[in-house]
Amino acid sequence: MYRVVLYLLIGLIGVATILAAFKVLAFSPLALLASTAFLIIICWAMNTILAFMLNVPANVESVYITALILALIIDPAQSVGAFLFLGWAAILAMSSKYILALRKKHIFNPAAIAVVITAFVLNQSASWWVGTVSMLPFVLIGGLLVARKLRQEDMVLSFCAAVIVGIALITLVQGRSVTTALYQVVVQSPLFFFAFIMLTEPLTAPPTKNLRRVYGALIGLLFMPQVHLGSIYSTPELALVLGNVFSYLVSPKQKVVLTLNRKIKMGHNVFDFVFRPSQKLTYRPGQYMEFTLAHPHADSRGNRRYFTLASSPTENFVHLGIRFYDQGSSFKQAMFQMNGKTQFVAAQIAGDFTLPTDPTQKLVFIAGGIGITPFRSMLKYLLDTQQRRDIVMFYANRRADEIVYKDVLSEVQAKLGIRTFYTLTDTAAVPRNWSAFVGRIQEQMLLDVLPDYLERTYYLSGPPDMVRAYEQVLKNLQVRHEQIKKDFFPGLV
User: Which DSSP string corresponds to 51-76?
Assistant: First the structure.
């Protein structure tokens, strides 16, 4: 997901360079490129130094993202003093990740806190020049892709709605033109760049959907230029920093180092990694975390990944179910080679794909391949807490040797009565003694097993194409949208 943001920012710099060359933007293309290169160098150098001094993994892609954001919100430098401003902004942005942090979790969006500090200390502010009419189409198109990739459309929508409604109401009360005010904020301000790029930063946003909606609305109200405290008027960066404080207060605070205990082959190219955490993790079954693995020669996908926790919070060890591919990323290759000395950092517990609070709610779990991991977490939790729930599970794999976590699935059936119906989608590879379903999960398969299918809530987890296909199957059966929960399943990115 970081790659999508990085590529968009590179694209915006490229577009701005072309527009500047045609005099559409009020600076030279050379000044923009020189400022961008300068910011990248300073951010990289500062991040490298701090990571080495504090002995923590350096997240290279975040360095480039922060540098490019600064290049898009601070006017390109055309003097020595302007370059000094850029340098301080870069230094402050990188330092904030390491210094303005509690329990090894940084609190503020690095670019935002940097320009807040420069505004108050150096009296030099970000211009947010990216918020122009000429850049708007490119910001909108790329931003929508980012929001969709991050599954943050609801947070972006709540933010934009709060800004637009708030400004419209204030303008009405002031007796000014609502049309003019809304045109200015929608077309001639950094509203959409801020919403799609700054607001959606995963590490400083809240962990669950409802909290993210509140977060977006709160920052939207603070974003309005009419908001002020005495002589201090709100700016986009100040609104985000204040929102970051709210996010930190309502978010899990843990960041742990995981030590590999053992690696168990469960099926074809599928392994269960078992880690000993440096401290006990507190999370809800079905949630995910961001993992950082420093390794040499990292490819363009970087050294960070999101994986759903396959373990239950009742367990002392952390389990990750990982599928490997022949042409895997450098991250996956490094992960496969890790040992008990490898530093594997986990942070940012998040996700809404969790058990309902009502234990009487009837559920159906539908897993595809390694999408079994959140269900393993939930079922193990139910086993350890001896909770009985009305759950029916469907588990689809291409081949029989790809079925994993069979021990937990068998135990919940024996002890809790939770049935699992297996199906193999590769009809040419079905074993002779196979007695379960064959083929993709279709309407009739669900009807045969679930006479009360309209009364149940459905949890879907697996590859994106599979989730979309099974969601359509449920819609064909007239299952309501609010009865379907889909896992973000970031382990696939």
Answer: HHHHT----HHHHHHHHHHHHHHSPP
Residue 321 to residue 371: CA distance in whole angstroms: 9
466 token code pair:
């599979």
CB 331 within 8 A of CB 278: no
| Residues 312, 375 contacting (CB under 8 angstroms) | no
Q: What is the DSSP string of 120-160?
A: III------TT-STTTHHHHHHHHHHHHHHHT-HHHHHHHH
The SS3 of residue 293 is: strand
Q: What is the pLDDT of residue 106?
A: 78
Give the separation between CA 81 and CA 70, rounded to whole angstroms: 16
CATH 3.40.50.80 fits 363-492, yes or no: yes
pTM score, two decimals?
Answer: 0.82
Task: Find which of 211-215, 340-344, 488-492 is predicted with most confidence, using mean pLDDT.
Answer: 211-215
Q: Domain extents for the chain? A: 2-250, 255-350, 363-492
464's enclosing H/E stretch is helix 464-476
Paired tokens of 151: 């599954």
CA-to-CA distance for 12 and 14, rounded, in angstroms? Answer: 5
Architecture, CATH, for domain 255-350: Beta Barrel (2.40)
* Inter-residue contact 371 to 461 (CB < 8 Å): yes
